[in-house]
Specification:
It contains 15 helices and 21 strands. It has 464 residues and is an alpha/beta fold. It has 3 domains: 91 residues, NAD(P)-binding Rossmann-like Domain (Rossmann fold, 3-Layer(aba) Sandwich); 200 residues, Mur-like, catalytic domain (UDP-N-acetylmuramoyl-L-alanine:D-glutamate ligase, 3-Layer(aba) Sandwich); 146 residues, Protein-Tyrosine Phosphatase, Chain A.
Length: 464
């Protein structure tokens, strides 16, 4: 497919679809696609960037699918009733899921590095990409987030790198079970916690993935990952932990507002490291990336030197700006572990936290209700404010058994300041009105790139 064949992406603007479309286009495939956001006029810059790569874009009305020679790629979120899918069925077009396509490219690589875990996948993938690239490698990289190191005027949405077949680096997704499709040479297991599936299902998926690899890099500072590591061949396993015993251990952490220092301790060395991204969770991410890079043939001192130049991902604790003494931060936090890490990072320094959390769907709210509530009750500090608008909804059928109002009621019952303001613009305006010098406003959520626009609008209102 990647050498001159024709393919059509249904939902091409999605965080997992866009980088694959860019990789195929860069490898010479004829790529076209459609997207609901394109039809509704949202995020025009993203679609302009795809057009600049020679990718043809069509309304999601079936008009772009014209031949049975086109392979149609769709994510699991695309329903069979979407006109493009109806047209593909009528023409008998071959079909692939997003994960099937990514796994095919991944499994064909000379060295495949797969990054798994409930949290931190995109950051670890970006760190590995930067280490390999900055040391003269030419990796192909599939990331679910924009890697700021690789953003250029001609690549404003750099969630992919198109390189050689020697290295293929990709985050791999457990939410739909598609992690089972991947056969990694190097597997990273960053952490295991509740998100889209039960812990029993996750243990099986992550354990099977790790067992396939030539080398598995495991966070034994995470209890669930450590338990899975016990079943792995120790000679093919590299362990890491923050302030714990492991092959790669981080000691003497020194937190900064938007950076962190630590000492990387191995059996043979102790190396100082300064990351240009903040938080204890990013120390764990860095250990994972360094371990994976060493497993792929990079010398440890070189990997350490390179990772210091990693500048982060868009929407991962990204400082949008500061106005009248109030900082605005855009963040991808959407499950209990990710949100907790963001709140911990903020609470390491003085100032109230004013949080807007837009849930990424009604289904995840139902699965994570108890864990989300417990996390917010434990992690919100006295004086903090939390506002939840209604969950993101981008069409299709959905069960609304648990809503933002339910989550807020549970949190408020435990004495924390939480409010349900259904309309997102009204929720944002409420926090702007509440803000005073020294506060940090953080906008959190996934599956909705327009959250970044909200963050910029809030900053603009603070400036006015």
């Amino acid at each position: 497919m990647q050498h001159g064949k024709s393919c059509f992406f249904v939902g091409i603007g999605g965080s997992g679809m866009m980088p694959l479309a860019m990789i195929l286009a860069g490898q010479g495939a004829k790529v076209a696609g459609s997207d609901r956001s394109l039809d509704s006029g949202r995020l025009p810059a993203k679609f302009d960037a795809l057009r600049a790569l020679g990718i043809d874009l069509f309304p999601q009305d079936g008009s772009g699918i014209v031949s049975p020679d086109q392979t149609v790629i769709a994510s699991a979120a695309v329903e069979e009733t979407v006109p493009d899918m109806v047209r593909a069925a009528e023409l008998g077009c071959p079909r692939m899921t997003r994960a099937e396509l990514n796994a095919a490219l991944f499994n064909a690589a000379g060295t495949s590095i797969g990054v798994a875990g409930t949290s931190g996948k995109s950051t670890v993938t970006g760190m590995i990409a930067w280490i390999l690239h900055s040391l003269g490698g030419d990796p192909t990289v599939m990331n679910g987030a924009v890697m700021k190191n690789f953003v250029r005027p001609d690549a404003p949405f750099a969630s992919a790198l198109v390189g050689s077949d020697d290295f293929y680096v990709s985050e791999v997704d457990e939410s739909d079970g598609s992690i089972a499709l991947y056969s990694p040479h190097v597997a990273v297991l960053n952490n295991v916690s509740l998100d889209h599936k039960s812990l029993e299902e996750l243990r099986t998926l992550f354990g099977d993935f790790a067992a396939k690899a030539r080398t598995t890099v495991v966070n034994v500072g995470d209890a669930e990952s450590a338990a899975l590591a016990m079943a792995l061949d120790r000679s093919r396993t590299t362990t890491f932990a923050v302030e714990g015993d492991a092959d790669l251990s981080a000691r003497n952490l020194a937190l900064e507002a938007f950076a962190v220092r630590f000492e990387l301790v191995t059996r043979d060395a102790a190396l100082p490291v300064r990351l240009a991204v903040p938080g204890r969770h990013n120390v764990a991410n860095a250990l994972a990336a360094i371990g994976a890079s060493v497993a792929a043939g990079i010398a440890l001192p070189d990997a350490v030197r390179a990772i210091e130049g990693f500048t982060g991902l868009r929407r991962r604790f990204e400082l949008v700006g500061e106005a009248n003494g109030v900082a605005v931060i855009d963040d991808f936090g959407h499950n209990p572990d990710k949100i907790a890490a963001t709140l911990d990072t903020l609470h390491a320094f003085p100032g109230r936290v004013l949080a807007l959390f837009q849930p990424h769907g009604y289904g995840p709210l139902k699965v994570m209700r108890r864990e989300l509530v417990e996390m917010f009750v434990n992690k919100l500090a006295p004086g903090d404010r939390l506002v939840l608008p209604d969950p993101v909804y981008q069409g299709g059928t959905v069960s609304r058994e648990v809503t933002s109002a339910d989550i807020v009621a549970d949190i408020a019952a435990s004495g924390r300041d939480a409010r349900h303001i259904p309309d997102r613009a009204a929720a944002a305006a409420h926090l702007v009105a509440e803000a005073r010098p020294g506060d940090r406003i953080v906008i959190m959520g996934a599956r909705d790139d327009t959250l970044s626009l909200v963050a910029r609008e809030m900053l603009a209102h603070l400036e006015s």
